Structures are given as structure tokens and as C-alpha cells.
Amino acid sequence: KGWHLQGCPLSLQVLAYNRRTYATVSQHLVITVIPAPGGEPPYQGEFLVGNRNVEELLPEAAREMFLQGLSGVWERGDLQVINITSALDRGGRVPLPIEGRKEGVYVKVGSHSPFSPCLESAVSLQSRFRCSLGQQPLASCYDTFAPHFSIRWCNLTLLQVWPNPTMPGLVWGSGVLEEDGDFQPPTEVPPQDLLPGFLVTLLVPLVVAALLCLLLGHLMCCRREGV
Q1: What is the CA radius of gyration of the chain?
Q2: Of the four listed, 45, 63, 100, 196, which is most buried by Cβ atoms within 10 Å?
Q3: Which domain holds residue 93?
Q4: Is 82:41 a contact under the CB 8 Å cutoff?
Q5: CB 49 within 8 A of CB 105
Q6: Looking at the domain assignment, is residue 194 inside a domain?
């Protein structure tokens, strides 16, 4: 993790472990980050696949199959996978080792084309209300993900990302002061009288110490038995 510049190589250390044998292996990857040819897709949707683990969607063939099923729902062909995240990283529970249950995977997909009416109806207020009742949301199209991918439609999220305006870069000077005379500070600080503060700082501890010494001497000398 950390910031990086576009076009500069970024070194990452990936540590993986085997779920069954718990054997670990590490590998260093050098990644060069370059901007996408068409820019960041402004229309992005995140789908929760309930019958897959994250490692099952990492291969290119599985991602192409997912995009093929999504193209029938989105009704667009310029789809690309932006991110794949395990549901465990989003607060999901570890599934029980029975009936072949899976962890679940969040897949974020982007496109330069607007959302289809099917996706917009799935995130409408009426659909959210049906999800709160434990029912399936409204969908005006056929689920082309089946039977390979089980989509949790109540967890569908649609985002519309607008490009950030480019800020002008910093202009570095030569580092040499121009010949315009002596440097003049922007403001002048008026002279201050530091004597009162010095006396308060010095006299207050001395007075307190003297009082403590008098109190301690009174207790030790004047409060003894027989005196």
C-alpha cells in the first residue's frame, strides 16, 4: 500500500497460503501503473456472487464467463472487471464446511455505457423495500448469470463516477532569489516585554517551595512529642 506515480514501477510482495496444508509462499511483483486507454469507466456496478470463492474468479476464463453473463443483463459489450474482493473482507462470515458452501465474491465491473433498465429497477426504492422484507428485488430481464453464477441481487450497488478535474501542476523555480534588493519579511513582529513572564515563571515556583519548606519545618520541629 502507498502512493505511487503513474508510469513508475511499483514493487509489491504477495504472501499466499494453502487453505488445506497452510503452506505459505511469497513472491515479489513489479507492477507499472498506466492510465486506462479510455479513462476510468463512469458507470460501475458491484455484484455479489454467492456461489464462488475469490480464487475461482481470478482466472481469465472465469472472468470472461462472468462478463458474458453480465452483458445480457447490462445490454452492453464494453464491460471490464475493475476489482474482485472476497466477501470475508467486507465483513462476511466464514461458511460452514458443508454442502460445498462458498465465501462469496464482490465483483466490480465498469462500462462507458449507461445502466440498463433491468439494473436500475433492481436498485429502485421498491426493490430495496422488497429486500428488507426478505423478498427478491424487481428485475425486468432474464438472469443470464444462471446457472454458473448465483447473484445476490439485494446486494447490488450501482455507482456513477465522474472524472476529477485536472489540477494544474506545480511550477518549480530556479531556487535562486531574484535581484530585487534585500529580502523583506512579509510582516514585522512588534517588540514584546518578556520581563513579567520571566518573573512569574521564576518567582511562583520559589514562593511555593518556600511555603512547603516552612510547612515541613513546622511539622518536623514544632510537632514533635514533648514540644
Answers
A1: 34
A2: 45
A3: 42-160
A4: yes
A5: yes
A6: no
Name the one residue in this structure whose C-alpha cell is 510547612.
215
The set of cell numbers assigned to 118 is 433491468
Q: Which residues pair with 46 in a beta bridge?
A: 108, 157
d(CA 106, CA 156): 10
> Mapping DSSP to helix (H, G, I), strand (E, B) and coil, where does residue 62 land?
helix
d(CA 114, CA 93): 33
Rounded Cα distance, 109 and 145, in Å:
14
Q: Are 34 and 7 a contacting pair, CB within 8 Å?
A: yes
Per the domain annotation, does 55 fall within a domain? yes
Tell whether 80 is covered by a domain. yes
Residue 114 lies in a domain: yes
Three cell numbers written together for 186: 512579509
pLDDT in tens, 45-85: 999 998 898 889 989 999 999 999 999 888 888 899 999 99
How are the residues of the chain apportioned to helix, strand and coil, as percentages rounded to the nearest 5?
A: 30, 20, 50
Tens of pLDDT along 1-20?
344 455 577 788 888 888 78
